[in-house]
C-alpha cells in the first residue's frame, strides 16, 4: 500500500532569517568567554596590554573579577547579535547563496553589527561593575550615535573578504560534517583578517572623548612602529579557537534548520 500523500511530504524548513536567529544565539553561547579574552588582549587598555597571552588574561580576570568577568557583554550580545545574524543569513539567501553573496551580505550587515560590536567590546574591557545599559548611555553622552560606529571602516574591510571566505568554505563543504566545515569556515574568516580585526578592536575600545588614534591608518602605523608585524596578530590563538568553536556550532545549527 502506498503511503498517504501528506505522510510522504518533506518537513518544512526554517527560513534563512529564523535559522540565522537560532544560529546567532547558539554561536554567542558557545564562544563568549573566548571572545572576552580575545577583546581584552587586542585592546590597548593598559591593564591588558602589558599581559602576555590568553592564559595571563584569563587568570587575571578570574582572580580579580571572578568567573563573571568572562561573560561581560553577554546579555547585549545575545539580545542584538542574534537579529544581526538573522539579517546576515537572510541577505546571503536573498543574494543567491554564493561566496560573493556572503561578501555583499557581510558588508551591508556592518551597519547593524557595528553598534553591537562597539558596545560589547567596550563592556568587555571594563573591570568595574557598570552595567551594559549604563555603558551604552555613557557612550551616547560622550559621542552621540557616532560613538557606536567607531571602528566601522576596519569592520567593513574585515567582513567583506571574511564572509566571502567563510561562505565559500561553507558552500564547498556542504556534504561534509557540518561542525568540521563550520570550524574551517571560521578559521578562514579570521585567519585572513586578523590584522584588520586588531585595528578594529582598538578603534572601538579607545577613549571616545580623547581618542588616541584619529583613523585606522594611524592605529595600524602605531601598532607596526611599537610591536612590528607581530602586533597585528596579538590574540590570534583565542581568536581562532573562538571562531572555530562558534562557527562550528552556528553553521551546524543553521544547516540543520535549513
Description:
This protein is mainly α and 258 residues long. Helices cover 72% and strands 0% of the residues. The protein contains twelve helices and no strands. The radius of gyration is 19 Å and the shape is globular. The two termini are 31 Å apart. 47% of the residues are buried.
Kindly list the characteristics that best describe this protein.
258 residues; mainly alpha; 12 helices; 0% strand
Molecular shape: globular
Radius of gyration using CA atoms only: 19 Å
Stretches where pLDDT falls below 50 for ≥5 residues?
Answer: none
Mean pLDDT: 92
Largest sheet: none
Which helices and strands appear, and what pairs or packs with what?
Elements: H1 5-8, H2 16-42, H3 46-49, H4 54-65, H5 74-94, H6 99-124, H7 132-143, H8 152-172, H9 178-191, H10 194-205, H11 216-227, H12 236-257
Helix pairs in contact: 2-5, 2-12, 5-6, 6-7, 6-8, 8-9, 8-10, 9-12, 10-11
Q: In short, what is this structure?
A:
With 258 residues, this protein is mainly α.
